[in-house]
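input
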Amino acid sequence: MATSSMKWVIYGAIGLVLVAGNALAFWPLIEASRQMHAFCGGLGPGLSWADIQARADDLGYEVSPIAAGQALVQDPRSYGRRECQLRFDSQGLARAR
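output
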């Protein structure tokens, strides 16, 4: 009886270590996605491309040049998985998503 309960304690500890290890391994990815979402959501209408470039530089993001009224902000550490699409009009930033 003692052997069986000890085995479950060991299995539980191994499971807990696996869950905690995965949480620690994937936390930077989750946090980087949250940071990009906050950056994109914090861009207000009317901002110029230069203002957005300055904000992006502070966070290590890359901003593409405006082409056909659109630009793209990417996190180079994510290999293109995290991005923010920007649309510009005559007054500056029209939409960021």
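quick obs: The mean pLDDT is 87.
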